[in-house]
Design a protein that fits this description.
By secondary structure, the chain is of the alpha/beta class. Helix content is 32%, strand content 19%. The protein is built from 22 helices and 29 strands. Strands 5-4-12-6-7-11-8-10-9-13-14 form an eleven-stranded mixed beta sheet, sandwiched between helices. The longest helix has 27 residues, at 667-693. It starts with a helix and ends in a 9-residue tail after the last helix. Bound molecules: zinc ion (ZN) (2 copies). The site of one zinc ion (ZN) has 7 residues, from helix 3.
Amino acid sequence: MGFRPAVYRLARSLELSGIVYNDTKGVTVELQGEAEKIAEFLARLQSDAGKPPLAEITSCNAVDMPVIESEAEFVIETSDSHGAPLSQVTADIATCRDCLAEMADKGDFRCGYPFINCTNCGPRYSIVKTIPYDRPNTTMSVFEMCGKCAAQYTDVNDRRFHAQPVACASCGPQIRLTDNTGGTITAQTEEVIAEAAKLLLAGKIVAIKGIGGFHLAVDALNSRAVQRLRRRKKRDHKPFAMMTDSIERIKEYAILSRAAGRLLSSPQSPIVLLPKKPDSSIAPSVAEGVDTYGFMLCYTPLHYLLFARNIKVLVMTSGNISDEPLICKNDKALERLGDVADAFLMHDREIYRQVDDSILHFVDEQPAFLRRARGYVPTPILMKKSCRQDIFAAGADLKNTFCFAKQNQLICSEHIGDLEDAEVYHHYIDSIEHLRGLFEVEPKIVACDLHPGYLSTRYALSVPDVKIIQVQHHWAHIASVLVEHGLEGPVIGLAADGTGYGTDGAIWGCECLIASLEKFERFGHLSYYDLAGGDKAGKEAIRPALSLLKQAYGGKFTLEEFDWLLSRIEPDKSRLEMVSEQLEKGVNCVETSSLGRVFDAVAAMLGLGSCNHFDAQLPMALEAIIKSSIEESYDFELINTAEKPLQLDLDQMMRQIIDDIQNDRPPAAISAKFHNTIAAALMQMAIAARESTKLNTVALSGGVFCNRYLANRLIKLLKKDGFSVLFNRDVPSNDGGISLGQAAVAVCLMGGDPSLLL
Ligand SMILES: [Zn+2]
Ligand SMILES: [Zn+2]
């Protein structure tokens, strides 16, 4: 982004002639001039001062070439040999320092303008309708540039050279404040900001249109206001994200490492999960049952203008109702959020693509994604290989993303959501077409999950005239780690997950795989237990709890004996008996090795709730209460037989947990011991796999590794034992990373071309 103009300016300043152009392999610069100056060019280009702020140079090769023709000047080539434009669509970027300074400068003609942007910042992906990435193909096409803006846009020496969304107060988008029926309260910029700030400080809910969609904003220090938002949004439990305008402010509420500070202030400006500070003044209902806050910094000029009006910290949660897609259009916002928001702070720059905020946390002191969207998409993840044919990977049904492979690029979509919601599914289908168009992909190979009931699988199977590759869920998880690290394997893959369809028709979830991108073998897994009730099993903790207890106690188990515990989880006796009967008769039951459901069961036994109102609510609550000073753990068994993969048996652990509960051990201690046991068990599986295969690299993935305590502890144990450990860094370890893994496997199976190595 802004790379060619930077090259141009550097070459001109050194009086070098030549040309700069983009192609799929990167940027090529041809230079003519004195050798010392060319050497200086190369040195300065790779220095932080020489390269544009958003560019990252992954490698730089220089070769001599014969001079065919003497060049008089330096030029930027903007189209390829066939005349096709070369500019690429990039991610949406947070407002840069230069623009912020101008916005505050009374002498600047964009002073106080809520849409100031430049080549180094502003919306991109969210406003592009089609390629080439040029103003007429964006939602900025309706705004005709004024003379001043146009002069900057066409001046290669200007920071706004070819910045497509460039605008000012006299030619660009405008804001307005409306009531919840769309009636304009005011459209005068300063009044809009002042009035919106006043409403927020008075505890009102304001829907604010941002880069990728609407947020619902409310004062995070005002408990009643936050609770009102929860009620109206029909979101009773899930933690809300918050926004402030400075790192210093965040430090008042959360514990912040330097690395977290850097990530928060990065151009991508994601939400970062940070440990809560004790006694912070944030309303408790912002984030109950978790030990972290999700914070982001202002990332649009409008956010900054608003926070300049005495606002300290806002809840900024996605503008949608429960699990529907994020709302990005003005009319839809009024229609769907009219009952939620008291007022709307909107503008007339259309958002073409809704893009959620990205969410990261820290695992093993490195950033790891929980949701990859705004700021990161559509930046491709590069492979060492190039694929011969374009590939589409459909992803999983929960936390869906999809992925295209084209040449050496893996282009992952933004977080789409849970496909079971009809609107999300339609959004999925639209998004596939949109991204396919932007990157001009023509897939001849389609990769998808094994699950016959997945909507993504059904969609993939319905694509005509393509070769289908079905990739087992946990293999895809491990493959996503491999391809991120530029490896093909084999490695020892530990997948700790909720659910994924297995090759034997069971629901897998705690797997030790010997996996490469080419194939995998199931080395070990958690012993199967029965889950009654299909989809309900992921929500109602009584289902795994009852099953695990029956298994742990065998013939000694009776409902009466465990009534003291079970009635806490499921007070309705008849329902309890029904689930019990289902398990006994095997009605609507499926065998599973899900680890996520074990977490649900233990959380419920400790009285932390009996239902996942949102994904992983119970496991998150279980993690949040851990007393980290406790090193004890429970007993488990690894059972090795010739005919079956290695079995992890947790029956002893379950019985010891029950003993601890009966002996009134505090839940914080039981939770720590439970987490320590799972880490130790996974570690022992890896050791057994190493003994058998002599492999020493372990790749970790799966939704359960969103649990920081578990991931950190296991990584530490593995490293201490001499393993080399790989973790997801470019995509989430939850199902948001599945599509990348599917694509990587498909590239490998179709024979990527190593002669095209970068
Ligand atoms: Zn800027
Ligand atoms: Zn203008």
